[in-house]
Amino acid sequence: MVDFAIKGNNILTPAGLQKAVVVLKNGLISDVLKDLPPTIDVEVIDIYDKVLMPGVIDPHVHINEPGRTDWEGFDTATRAAISGGLTTLVDMPLNSSPVTTSAAAFDQKLAATAGQLHTNCGFWGGLVPGNTGEIEKLIAKGVLGFKAFLTHSGIDDFPNVNEADLRKAMPIIAKHGLPLLVHCELSTDEILATGDVRSYQNYLSSRPAEWEDKAISLLIRLCEEYNCRTHIVHLSSASSIEPIAKAKQNGLPLTVETAQHYLFFNAETIQDGQTQFKCAPPIREKENNDQLWVALRDGTIDFVATDHSPAPPDLKLLQRGDFMKAWGGIASLQLALPVLWTAARQRGFSITDIARWLSEKPAQLTGLSHQKGQIAIGYDADLIVWDPLNSFTVSEELLQHKHKMTPYLHQELYGVVEQTYLGGLKVFENGTISQLNAGKLITPFMK
């Protein structure tokens, strides 16, 4: 029995945008047709000129539960997700307490999702010094891969690894074919922040691009040595684009993401004291960020992920404007699609590009490309309907995040998400969440 069908003039299939009818049955896409034959008697939803696209997959989200639910939590994060068309998240292993660096901690993480998982969610395990013995235990529990830092993470119980730690872990991770995600900054004592702590330029200088470049060079070398799937998170340094491109040309299993804020904002427009813009690596100059767009266009950068990293407003020190002591992280989960589309449309990119960066390529990193990220027969009916021509202004009232502080407040953004479907079930429509607790846990064992 077919559940229903969605027809429209802008259905995003692997062949591109086209007029089509998508037939949904038992939570899956059962067919994609040019027209619905009269032999199929089914309810048809006509979206006319709106876009039907695979749901957004964000593999870089800090949900912070258990232990720091006052920062975000599964309930608010996944409400924000479906409101923004995000049908699958992957939670980072730090900022929760305990951090997800052991099988026992992972069990606590899974237990914390009960009754408040409103979109699909998978999990990265954490790699820290001394937990090599937990890697295969975490894999057996169902993590999708591992995350490590090469500089201080901001959380003392999630310390950074060094080259020796990576050499112990990468052969194990490579044996299981999972990705290692790395925050690439190698700090030194050569450049220290001095001067006005409210100065954005001062903060930018304190985390130079050379830190990223040095770390990425190390990761490329180890990726080649161990043939371990290696993923560079939130690339901000354009000077690393060329060595990344060469590594990919040489066939290394290397992938790269950047974040919306490196594409939407530029250092030149951030005023002193505006700590809502603080993140690490920092938002760099326009000339640098323009090169990130070029690398997205040619595929050197694979996709875009939010690095949603919220915190209570008092930790951002907005009144003091102290960039050196404020929490580094940008809240943007619900805005992933419209932020990227607003910036991309100004540069001549297409909706097909958006789907590749937000759906198709993230599905590949997470091992879900056989069932998510495309509108094709047999794929999960995780879908969104959105209007690329309509705009809205970001307000606190609109956001489902626990805390409403974000540098995107009051920005006019294009791309209004009108409907979100999880497994063929409508969970969001026109500003209203219509179904809660429809999310599923995502593991590599899914069929």
UniProtKB/TrEMBL annotation:
TM region(s), chain numbering: none
Keywords: Hydrolase, Metal-binding, Zinc
Enzyme class of the recorded protein, top EC level: hydrolase
Keyword Cell wall biogenesis/degradation set for record: no
GO molecular function terms noted in the UniProt entry: allantoinase activity; cobalt ion binding; zinc ion binding
Domain Amidohydrolase-related, chain residue ranges per copy: 51-392
Pfam families given in the database record: Amidohydro_1 (PF01979)
GO CC annotations, alphabetized: cytoplasm
EC number: 3.5.2.5
Physiological role: Catalyzes the reversible cyclization of carbamoyl aspartate to dihydroorotate.
UniProt similarity note: Belongs to the metallo-dependent hydrolases superfamily. DHOase family. Class I DHOase subfamily.
Record note on quaternary structure: Homotetramer.
NCBIfam families to which the protein is assigned, alphabetical: allantoinase (TIGR03178)
Protein name: allantoinase
Gene transcribed to yield this protein: allB
